[in-house]
């Protein structure tokens, strides 16, 4: 039998009186399934700054490595720069980037789900002169289902601009 998440009230009813010893192994597994349905944070951080050529179409940000806190309900893969959802639900999503790049460039970012722009977790930021370091942090809430692949993409205001991620974090935190 599949493990089933239960509400708080259902768990209280189940466990409030077990004098008859009627709490089954399945009930215990359902309890574990219910209490561990939240959390699931994974952090991907740039290891060393390296320029990435970006043009006027969104391309995947590919400067992440796997530096994790823990990864319940998600499966990050630095080799593909994606995070796959292993248990759907409501997620708080956060991207935080510190970056440099080509002079007088406007950068846009957006989160993608299964290679489709979600039009969420977006930013637009302009770097003026050489040596500028831009900072953006964006928080949003998203609903994901099992098996969806999540990534973050960037585009520039002109062809062949250089984007260098100085430091960055991409979080997905299951909250419901």
Note down, in words, how this protein is organized.
This protein has helices at residues 8-15, 25-35; strands spanning 44-45, 51-54, 59-60, 65-66, 74-77, 82-85, 89-101, 105-113, 116-117, 123-127, 134-144, 149-156, 161-174. It is mostly beta strands. The chain folds into 2 domains: 1-36, no CATH class; 44-174, Jelly Rolls. The strands form 3 sheets. Strands 3, 5, 6, 8, 9, 10 and 12 form a 7-stranded antiparallel sheet that branches. The model has no long low-confidence stretch (mean pLDDT 80).
Record field, number of beta strands = 13
Individual helix count: 2
> What would the CATH topology of the largest domain be?
Jelly Rolls
How would you sum up the major sheet? 7 strands, antiparallel
Coarse shape: elongated
Order of helices and strands: HHEEEEEEEEEEEEE
Estimated radius of gyration: 21 Å
| CATH level-1 class of the largest domain | Mainly Beta
Work out the helicity level. Answer: 10-25%
Oligomer category: single chain
Mean pLDDT: 80
Report strand %.
Answer: over 45%
Question: In short, what is this structure?
Answer:
The chain is 11% helix and 45% strand.
């Amino acid at each position: 039998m599949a493990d089933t998440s239960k509400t708080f009230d259902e768990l209280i009813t189940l466990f409030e009186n077990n004098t008859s010893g009627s709490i089954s192994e399945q009930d215990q597994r359902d309890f574990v399934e219910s209490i561990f349905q939240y959390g699931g944070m994974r952090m991907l951080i740039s290891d060393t700054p390296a320029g990435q050529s970006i043009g006027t179409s969104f391309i995947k940000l590919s400067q992440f490595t796997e530096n994790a806190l823990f990864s319940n309900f998600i499966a990050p893969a630095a080799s593909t720069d994606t995070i796959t959802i292993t248990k759907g639900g409501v997620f708080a999503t956060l991207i935080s980037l510190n970056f440099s790049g080509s002079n007088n460039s406007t950068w846009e970012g957006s989160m993608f789900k299964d290679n489709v722009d979600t039009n969420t977790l977006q930013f637009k930021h302009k770097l003026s002169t050489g040596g500028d370091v831009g900072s953006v942090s964006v928080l949003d809430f998203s609903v994901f289902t099992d098996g969806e692949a999540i990534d973050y993409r960037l585009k520039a205001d002109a062809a062949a601009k250089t984007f260098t991620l100085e430091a960055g974090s991409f979080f997905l935190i299951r909250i419901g």
